[in-house]
Amino acid sequence: MAEPQTAGSHISRGRKIQYRENRILAALPPDEFERFAPRLQQSPLTFKRSLYKAGQPIKLVCFPDSGVCSVMSVMRTGRTAEVGTIGNEGMTGVALFFGDLTEPSESMIQVPGAGRLLSAEVFLQEMARKGALNRLIGHYAHALMIQIMQAAACNALHSVEKRACKWLLMTHDRVFTDEFKLTHEFLGMMLGVSRPQVSVVTKQLERAGLIEYHRGQVTVIDRKGLEGEACECYGIISRYFDQFLNQLEAR
After folding, report:
1. Domains along the chain?
2. Whole-structure pTM value
3. What's the CA gap between 51 and 95, in Å, rounded?
4. If you write DSSP's letter for every residue of 111-158 in order, what string do you get?
5. What is the dihedral of CA 230, 209, 70, 138, to 10 degrees?
6. What is the pLDDT of residue 177?
């Protein structure tokens, strides 16, 4: 089994520090964080939990401390495809930052963990203050927008195999271990493909010695090998999140 990657950082490669709390909240000045901290609600993020539905009012934003959330585009037929991945570098419900109360997408937990919830009302009050939280969310929203735009191009231009490698890497960047829960059904939802296609892809990656897959659990065996097989989108997205995380660490 490969050595576990550094915990919880989107760009964790080669780092020794483990981040087991939300990076945005941790970067806030103490006085600003303490003002609304009593309104934050600790909550488990259970597998497949929906944080908000497409077209419905966003009542809560979530700052993950661990675990991974997916932002999914949902078609009328019920088919889905992931357009964004959120770990403890970010938050869900970014539409509120732009003044919108709904999103055309759905946010669902893909890897269980824990997070802190804040009501939309309190979040909007904090945004109106134009303080440090507002500025950090603005930087994060830009990085997330780049991720979503790149996903649109990726879904149209790259093979399922390369997209699967990108997805595994982005998830691996956000979890505390080389092993995490991954059913064929859920990976199919993320990639917008059928379960038989998922089976073919995971078997190819196993034969190549990049992962092990057993009973709904995937283990990353060869991180560098996955990077070599992933599409260019992974590197593009990672660079922008590196810039964002470097801004947080400089505070």
Report:
1. 23-249 (2.60.120.10)
2. 0.83
3. 13
4. E-EEEEEEEHHHHHHHHHTTSHHHHHHHHHHHHHHHHHHHHHHHHHHS
5. -50
6. 84
